[in-house]
Amino acid sequence: MKQYLKVNEWSIIEDSFDPNNQELSESIFSIGNGHIGQRANFEEAFSGQTLPGSYMAGVYYPDKTRVGWWKNGYPEYFAKVLNMANWIGIDIKIDGETLDLARCKVDQFYRELNMKEGYLLRRFTATLDSGKQIQVEAQRFTSLARPEVAAIMYAVTPVNFAGVITFTPFLNGDVMNRDSNHGEQFWDEVEKYHDGHGHLAGLVMKTKKLDFYVCSTMTFEVFQGDLNKGALTATANQVTHDKFVGQSVDVKANKDERVTLYKYITNVTSRDHAVADLIQVGRRRADEARSAKFETLLSEQKQAWAKKWEESDIIIQGDPAAQQGIRFNIFQLNQTYTGADERLNIGPKGFTGEKYGGSTYWDTEAYCLPFYLSTADPKIARNLLIYRYRHLEKAKENARKLGFKEGALYPMVTMNGEECHNEWEITFEEIHRNGAIAHAIYDYVNYTGDVDYLGEYGFEVLAEISRFWSERTNLSTLKNKYVILGVTGPNEYENNVNNNWYTNRIASWTMEYTLQVLTDLRQRDPKRLQELLDRLQLTDEETNNWQHIIQNMYYPTDKSRGVFLQQDGYLDKEIIPVKDLPAQELPLNQHWSWDRILRSCYIKQADVLQGLFFLGNQYDLETKKRNFDFYEPLTVHESSLSPCVHSILACELSYQDKAYDMYLRTSRLDLDNYNNDTEDGCHITSMAGTWMSVVYGFGGLRVKEGRLHLQPLLPKEWQSLSFKVVYRGALIHVHVSKDGVTVHNETETPVSISVSGENFDLGAHEKRTARTV
Amino acid sequence: MKQYLKVNEWSIIEDSFDPNNQELSESIFSIGNGHIGQRANFEEAFSGQTLPGSYMAGVYYPDKTRVGWWKNGYPEYFAKVLNMANWIGIDIKIDGETLDLARCKVDQFYRELNMKEGYLLRRFTATLDSGKQIQVEAQRFTSLARPEVAAIMYAVTPVNFAGVITFTPFLNGDVMNRDSNHGEQFWDEVEKYHDGHGHLAGLVMKTKKLDFYVCSTMTFEVFQGDLNKGALTATANQVTHDKFVGQSVDVKANKDERVTLYKYITNVTSRDHAVADLIQVGRRRADEARSAKFETLLSEQKQAWAKKWEESDIIIQGDPAAQQGIRFNIFQLNQTYTGADERLNIGPKGFTGEKYGGSTYWDTEAYCLPFYLSTADPKIARNLLIYRYRHLEKAKENARKLGFKEGALYPMVTMNGEECHNEWEITFEEIHRNGAIAHAIYDYVNYTGDVDYLGEYGFEVLAEISRFWSERTNLSTLKNKYVILGVTGPNEYENNVNNNWYTNRIASWTMEYTLQVLTDLRQRDPKRLQELLDRLQLTDEETNNWQHIIQNMYYPTDKSRGVFLQQDGYLDKEIIPVKDLPAQELPLNQHWSWDRILRSCYIKQADVLQGLFFLGNQYDLETKKRNFDFYEPLTVHESSLSPCVHSILACELSYQDKAYDMYLRTSRLDLDNYNNDTEDGCHITSMAGTWMSVVYGFGGLRVKEGRLHLQPLLPKEWQSLSFKVVYRGALIHVHVSKDGVTVHNETETPVSISVSGENFDLGAHEKRTARTV
User: Fold this and answer.
1) Residue A544, pLDDT above cutoff 70
2) CB A366, CB A410: distance < 8 Å
3) Which residues have C-beta within 8 Å of that of residue B639, sequence separation ≥ 6?
4) List of residues 6+ apart from B746 with CB closer than 8 A
5) Which residues neighbour A656 within 8 Å (Cβ) at sequence distance 6 or greater?
6) What are the pLDDT digits (tens) for B382-409?
7) CB B17 within 8 A of CB B105
8) What is the largest CA-CA distance in chain A?
């Protein structure tokens, strides 16, 4: 845990420069717009420790998979998010001396991620070896309004001298991934061009595999002193070498005279444009951006972010650290995925690092979907579902590859529908992911009421997943029950267990829900149902078999404690609460051998409790309480996805302090570098879990039978909590304070609502205060 | 399965040349002498598919370990057997045209591994592109009598022309391992020298890590026509380049005139000599070999092998394929390990390939020890035990690394006592290896009666292993029994199971035996015991705890079937006999995903049955029968170590046909390439299992309370079976035929013996025939 950032409700602020924090700050101060993401690397040269990261959504690399010991069924490749051409670069020389913060004295350093307006700002004073001192101000953003555009303002002011400042804005495709086998590079240069007079240059790079083309274009203007004097017009000098194009401009600056460079960049890809058009499109967009000017683009940016905040802000009064935490999470989520492109999804690190390869995990369905459901147009959540629908054939192939005759097994990790992870205990065994994908369909339909989705897309996915489950179970003649052997549950600190309760339950639930959808479709749209049954060749015999499995599924339980057992044999372990472990042995994954972890009773992340959260409407409070009381003390929360679920359940059980503890653990995970790994990138998907812990947890939001339920619980540390949710065409503003709960319908659409057990309809623009929480 | 070799009782013979079989033959026709091993690569150039392999015992390379996903506790390196300098090489040119069997027409090809006399012979006629035809005869061996010496005879006869034959014998250190990450080479050249007049050259190479030095020295003589005319004396031309030294000699040969080159090679290492002395020692040994002459060295070799066969031959009459199989196994075992160097051990592939890195596995204790116990001086088996004693500190470190406070966990795979394998399910979980190491001590003492070993070495190892077991168990409050969670048993088609019967049993047995040894020592040598207890700080409290665990160990069982259960939950699986699987799906490891294998009931190698074999004296025949009848039909024998155990138990149960089937499967595994992988090297350690299946199986040999028991069962396919065993100073010749069992004591030492239940003492040189089998 490392706390060096200032608490501020709207910004992340670093007010001194410590090179040891640079990679960590690079993650935290990342900017992005769903199309492109950029770590907070410096524009100018930096010879200190840094993880360069410029990432473009949907552009990946099928790298040779690193495998210690091959197992049949492993994928051939591991997809990697690609560090693409450095487009932020602006080399600075002062009378020939390179500016490099690792090699000069830095004072008055200030870095701010302004979340309200969506930009990154940096100011500092640097004293070079020569004794020359400059002030620098740099500001940049990736435009939400124009996804292919980014802009940088970079101003240098000589403090104690007059001299020549050389600016060399550049595009550099000679980049590496840190996560590369043996230093291999992933990009080839295709073309570059340069127009010194026009202050314009472009670079087209192509990935060595899969042929993704990315054209980066830059154009720039330099102003000396007063901006109103107009841009300098001197022809820039070309600086090119392999995979690199730059232009340099010398400016003779007086003491205290600010010289400002505006760099306008576009990054366009063959995912969106014909390869032949890339240069032209890039150039046009760049020209448009330059014509619009930095201030106009920035103003568009502020407006776009204002709209995002209007939809998704959460206000916590009385607890600035908690306020900053939740806003940071919402900000990063909105930077990562906008829903504009249905081919995209949400990687665990978003665009803030290479780890997890930018691929899609079950995180999307299990943790991210609710955020987008409640804060954005429903079609965005729908797109996340359709993403999996489009991968159905690949998921069927994946099941075939593992030897299943029927059904679909979605991959654990994927970029294009194919599995690209190779740990047998995860790849082959963490099959519960299939359940989360089914549950997300339920979640979406339950929230939005969009039952048409089921006939259109949902049923096919559900049916193929149910088929997988039915083949993956087997009848234990010993138990005379259906069992699921050899799985890894959500708790990855157990591998290859039998009858993981969560997996058995979510498998059975999938089949139940599929049959329910089938029955509903038979009522609502028999013609479409018949089409589907024909296409799927789904027979009564098969659905009867599902019914039989549902009725005879085995669930491990401990009757004496009245709890569900995480898996067979769990009670053979030594059961010692986490609090009794020596503090210096935590986190376990940094101190214990894998062998010891596996044999221990300690739970990495919610497992039985994950099921009680997902299927919360099927279990009474007493059951939840018994299981929470049993499992919470044994859970080490060494997955970022764990505390949010415990926080939500703790709210439901009115365990205020536990809920608040768990909330802090999730909401400031990256800002306080809780897991000591944020330098690799931010934990983007768990940020959606943080959002849930506020809205589902402290807000107590649920949707039951078409009614929006709220059951708020205000932590004693907070004066009030406000959030907005989009619900079936309405925008509901919820305000929770010690005095009560106010719900305000900010739209024309009436909604059925329940607040703290009181049911009512909330009409257009109606505001109502319910009884005290 | 591939059968292209001729059946012959004393030789392996290939009588035509198929380049597709070359790598397979290279493995099978390997020669070695415990000090050095050499695949049957050709002396002359060969541009076809080949796996060059020259290996020196004890010289290894700690290569960077290949890991997909790191787990805490993994070792830093993987030890590899090193392909060292090619010392067999003799380049042949005919009027400048290179001889290369991949590029010429080959007739009358004949390759023989003469097991009786210990040499490799090859003859062929080659027609070159030019139409020139030559006859070649090549013979070589690695000397048993002079372990650092090897010799090659290479004769060329022009068939249809007269011309210049250029011989270039060489030493080439520019070699690779196939099993190398990214083509890295492992050797650096240190020094080379050359004496053209003396027909002598040397090359000193050093490994890039660990600084093993190997000096290869060659000297040679060339004879034209009649050998009596004396060697040619022309000065040889030097041919050197990086890591390579050779000498070439041109001989103008007449048609039909045989030109013969004798190459004498020594390979000496810094393991045995001071680095500064290597060149001198190598040169002296090479000079001595040349002075002795090839025929003398070959005659020494025949004598040395005659002695080996005298001790260890098995004669099977009436079944030449079975005869050839067992002799091949005995031959390879004797080539691999002679016991001369207690620092050495037995790698699963011996010196016949790179696979398994030449490292030591539990194979040594579980499968190899009995062979050496019964066919060689007891100090050889003792050396194998002392090897582990010397690694005790490393085994304790290994346990500490995994978080154990006490005790020793021997590595799964090792070259120097450190673990060098990195699959968690094997490295961390296949802990039953500790039990095999303890059991080997019992086995040795039981067979030899050398109780002094226990006080000297054995007890410390046993105590530290028992300590590990006691910490590795935990009390299940649910079962009120001690359990062992998260293990992989001998059957590697199950991972991370709870309460593997074999592991629980061997753990408990180790503690029982350790306590028994402690009690015996207290009687026999209380002073030594006190020294040991003090050194180990072993208290009554600790041994009482072992006692408590022994008495309360949990053993999974199926009471209804009366069988031990391989592990908890085994009966939840679908139980379908192997014979009901589609034949095309076997072997499973080539057709099924790992996921499917893990969940299936199929057993890779003897697991419960391994325990019933090891601890055979503790279980009655009925128990063995019930377990055999249950597990044999579910066993796929996809480990080479499996059929021998089943064969032995089948003999005990008088299942003649099953025993014979299993015997064939093990004894001709490599000759018939049963597992389709012998090109990687021969299955050396399973060859000792084959030996056991004859002597322990069909011979029914056991030692009980100091008496040698024989309970022969002659397969109906055999007329007779004869073997010899060394037992407590006596050499007993056992002959089993349809008429009865004859035992002949070929020594002065009387022995207590039991044949088919009849007990008697067999005096000096006494021969006795027992009742019909």
Assistant:
1) yes
2) no
3) B492, B604, B605
4) B724, B730, B731, B732, B733, B765
5) A650, A713, A715, A716
6) 999 999 999 999 999 999 999 999 999 9
7) no
8) 89
User: Is B485 close to A424, i.e. CB distance below 8 A?
Assistant: no
Partner residue opposite A592 with nearest CB, options B68, B403, B569? B403
Tell me, yes or no, if B498 comes closer than 8 A to chain A by beta carbon.
yes
Q: Average of pLDDT values for A563-592?
A: 96
Q: Rounded distance, CA A292 to CA A272, Å?
A: 23
Beta bridge partners of A63: A78
The token pair at B521 is 């020592």
Reference A137, options A67, A219, A78, A223; nearest CA is A223
| Tens-digit pLDDT profile for residues A458-497 | 999 999 999 999 999 999 999 999 999 999 999 999 999 9
Contacts of B764 (CB under 8 A, 6+ apart): B745, B747, B748, B749, B750
- Specify the amino acid at residue A623: T
Q: Do A32 and A333 meet the contact criterion of CB atoms below 8 Å apart?
A: no
Q: A701 — alpha (psi -120 to 50), left (phi > 0) or beta?
A: beta
Q: What are phi and psi of A411, to 5 degrees?
A: -70, 155
Tell me: pLDDT of B632 over 70.
Answer: yes
Beta strand residue intervals within B143-181, DSSP E: 149-158, 163-172
pLDDT of A620 higher than 70: yes
The structure's pTM equals: 0.94
DSSP string, A78-119: EEEEPP--B-S-EEEEETTEEP-GGGSEEEEEEEEEETTTTE
The arithmetic mean of pLDDT across residues A556-561, rounded, is: 97
The first and second tokens of residue B378, run together, are 């007891």
Mean pLDDT of chain A: 96
Residue carrying structure tokens 């691929």: A359
Q: Is B474 on the interface with A (CB under 8 A)?
A: yes
**Is any Cβ of chain A less than 8 angstroms from the Cβ of B555?**
no
pLDDT tens across B697-710, in order? Answer: 999 999 999 999 99
| 3-class DSSP state of B534 | helix
Checking ipTM against 0.90, whether it exceeds it is yes
Active site residue B492: yes
Preferred mutation among B355, B484, B558, B593 to probe A, highest tally of A CBs within 10 A: B593
Burial of residue A723 (CB within 10 Å: 0-12, 13-18, 19+) is: buried
Q: Best interface-test mutation with A: which of B67, B567, B572 has the largest number of A CBs within 10 A?
A: B572
A to B CB pairs, distance under 8 Å: 140
The answer to whether the beta carbons of residues B240 and B196 sit under 8 Å apart is no
Main-chain dihedrals φ then ψ at residue B66, nearest 5 degrees: -90, 120
Q: What distance in Å separates the CA atoms of residue A469 and residue A484, rounded to the nearest whole number? A: 9
Average pLDDT over residues B317-329: 96
Q: How far apart are CA A166 and CA B633, in angstroms?
A: 81
- Residue B403 at interface with chain A, using a CB cutoff of 8 Å: yes
Of the residues A181, A576, A590, A599, the best mutation for testing chain B's interface (the one with the most B CB atoms within 10 Å of its CB) is: A599
**DSSP single-letter state for residue A771:** P
Using the Cβ of B615 and the Cβ atoms of chain A, whether some distance falls under 8 Å is answered with no
> Across the interface, which of B485, B495, B597 has its CB nearest the CB of A572?
B485
- Residue A300 CB contacts under 8 Å (≥ 6 apart), including other chains: A143, A144, A145, A146
Contact A594 B475 (CB under 8 A): no
| H/E element, A201 | strand A200-207
Taking CA–CA distances from A588, the nearest residue in chain B reads B72
Query: For A278-322, what is each residue's pLDDT tens digit?
Result: 999 999 999 999 999 999 999 999 999 999 999 899 999 999 999
Asked if A65 lies within 8 A of B68 by C-beta distance, the reply is yes
What the block records as the tokens of A188 is: 């080839």
Which residue is associated with the tokens 């022009």?
B158
How far apart are the C-alpha atoms of B425 and B301, rounded to whole Å?
45
- Tokens encoding A388: 């999996």
